[in-house]
Design a protein that fits this description.
alpha+beta, nine-stranded mixed β-sheet, 26% strand, binds zinc ion
Length: 563
């Protein structure tokens, strides 16, 4: 197989710029009990907190980026909102201690910045609730003589109720009521009557109005994905993951997706009417997202990594699992798969900088873990294959998992040890180790060396890969939307970008089809287009967006310098 990974050579310089009391335990239940009742007709929630001891105030566990005092309704004749520093409190009006508290709120579906959405809705009216916005946390008064709970409760137990509905979470399905002992970052709880799709290795709640083609693909490929990972790693899942897949904003004229993961949970949302038309590329993106997140069930949950600074293993590994899965299922062919790795390798070389890869989290360059990690995984794959063509990078993970059955954790040394074992040499392992922990003056040289002994051809090229040219073209629109609207909404086609109307954002209030920027084709000459944009931004210049005929369709000012 004569694949080529092109590494960008001469133009590198330009790109670097962008870039407890045990005896009492038996007698007193020191847990916090949270009773949550869903009121379907009103789409609202009643919550009752039962505390193990009377307290003067309570505080929430999670900071959460929304205003609880606006959403949660408390009985104002008895309770009031208070603050201690940054921490929001609920206190009694007369200062007396209390041992229980009731609150109510209507389902809250807005996106919450950098946090889990409070509620999500399915098109049949059923809902998800994220548990941990409701969790109470460490009592902020540490002095036990003042606050008898001290630092925190001895665990939290959630009690869920919803008449005539199923309550489904973490691989289990209950009728009308359920109990959950809160763990970790919390979970999503489903209240509704959609019949779960259950297979041996997963359970999924899928929106009934999901467009047929997307539904069909989901039903067919989601279970296959889990089987594939199990087979390739010889590591069956130790839990039954649950996938929540809803379809929202069905009439809006666009298509996008969002989602998140929690232990044993993948939550996916697709938005917009454009999902109704079959769109392979759009589904591929969604599938890649799912496949990446699902890979973390193996390399992050069943087996956890020891060091955050070595995240290249699990992030690059997850991208690699996802790329191979997409090829396995025919969503992309082998050439397209190599293009994904090629893009990762170029981004790694161009954006990592000279600092050691393990400094990336400190430097807030998390993307390096994905891009360099995927490149390191691909190099591992080819080195393993040169030794034994029947083996793959999955065998490396299989061996890491096997070697760490005792404590279910792994580290970088485990990776290098198994790589050395499978390749019969420590050459690549040593080089990856160096790349991870040392300053590298020439990223390109070292990356190219990983592939030198493999069947993969590496050419150094001054041609930017198509994906990168397009990327920078799109970046112009992205930056302008961010500046003016603080949000981004567009779709890209073969040679133009179609923007969707953004309400109350003058510059992008109407939809547009943009093909040229200041006379330069957005996709044909994306890098030049971005550079000219960047220069304009230095003086707050005006950018002309143009249509197919190069007619100006918008004049938009650049409001700040861009990288
Ligand atoms: Zn990830």
């Amino acid at each position: 197989m004569g694949y080529e990974v092109k590494l960008v050579n001469k133009l590198l310089a330009i790109f670097l710029l962008f870039f407890s009391c045990p005896t009492l335990a038996a007698e007193i239940d020191f847990r916090l009990h949270i009773h949550v009742q869903y009121q379907q007709e009103m789409d609202s929630w009643k919550v009752r907190y039962e505390l193990p001891v009377a307290v003067e105030h309570l505080a929430f566990d999670r900071q959460s980026n929304f205003d609880r005092s606006k959403l949660y309704k408390i009985d104002r004749s008895k309770f009031k909102w208070g603050k201690a520093g940054d921490v929001l409190l609920i206190q009694s009006v007369d200062g007396s201690k209390f041992q229980s508290l009731d609150l109510t709120f209507g389902s809250f579906y807005d996106d919450i910045q950098k946090d889990y959405t409070h509620n999500l809705k399915f098109s049949d009216g059923s809902v998800l609730l994220y548990t941990n916005h409701l969790a109470l946390g460490a009592n902020i008064i540490a002095d036990k003589s003042i606050s008898p709970i001290g630092q925190s409760f001895r665990g939290t137990q959630f009690h869920f109720y919803s008449p005539k509905q199923n309550i489904t979470f973490l691989g289990n399905n209950f009728k009308e009521k359920a109990l959950w002992n809160a763990k970790g970052e919390g979970t999503y709880i489903y209240f509704g009557n959609i019949t779960p799709i259950e297979t041996d290795n997963m359970i999924a709640i899928v929106d009934p109005t999901l467009p047929k083609w997307a539904w069909k693909n989901t039903q067919e490929y989601f279970p296959k994905l889990f089987e594939y990972y199990e087979r390739k790693t010889s590591q069956p899942l130790s839990f039954k993951p649950i996938v929540f897949f809803n379809y929202d904003q069905i009439d809006a004229d666009y298509s996008n997706y969002s989602g998140g993961t929690l232990d044993g949970v993948v939550q996916l949302t697709i938005n917009g009417s454009r999902w109704k038309t079959e769109d392979k590329n759009q589904f591929n993106k969604l599938f890649h997202f799912l496949a990446h997140e699902a890979a973390h069930f193996w390399n992050g949950q069943m087996f956890s990594f020891e060091e955050q600074m070595h995240s290249w293993m699990h992030e690059g590994g997850a991208d690699t699992f996802a790329n191979f899965a997409m090829q396995e299922f025919g969503f992309i062919d082998s050439k397209q798969m190599m293009q994904k790795f090629e893009a990762a390798a170029n981004n790694c070389v161009l954006k990592k900088g000279q600092q050691a890869l393990d400094k990336s989290s400190e430097l807030r360059r998390y993307r390096n873990y994905y891009t360099c990690g995927a490149t390191m995984a691909l190099a591992s794959h080819f080195a393993i294959q040169s030794k034994d063509a029947s083996k793959s990078v999955f065998d490396l993970w299989k061996n890491i998992f096997k070697a760490n059955q005792q404590d279910n954790t792994y580290n970088q040394q485990d990776y290098f040890k198994e790589l050395t074992q499978l390749t019969g040499s420590n050459t690549l392992a040593n080089s990856l180790d160096k790349f991870s922990k040392q300053t590298i003056v020439d990223n390109q040289l070292i990356v190219a060396s990983w592939f030198a002994q493999t069947e993969l051809g590496i050419t150094l090229s001054t041609d930017y890969p198509q994906s990168m040219v397009r990327h920078w073209g799109k970046q112009v629109i992205y930056e302008l939307m961010q500046m003016h609207c603080k949000r981004v909404s567009f779709n890209s086609y073969a040679d133009y970008v179609s923007t969707y109307p953004i309400k109350a954002c003058g510059a992008f209030e109407h939809s547009m089809e943009v093909q040229f920027i200041d006379g330069l084709p957005l996709f044909g000459e994306g890098i030049d287009a971005y550079n000219s944009f960047r220069t304009k931004c230095e003086n707050n210049g005006t950018v002309f967006l143009q249509d197919r005929e190069k007619e100006n369709i918008a004049e938009i000012q650049c409001m700040r310098e861009v990288s």
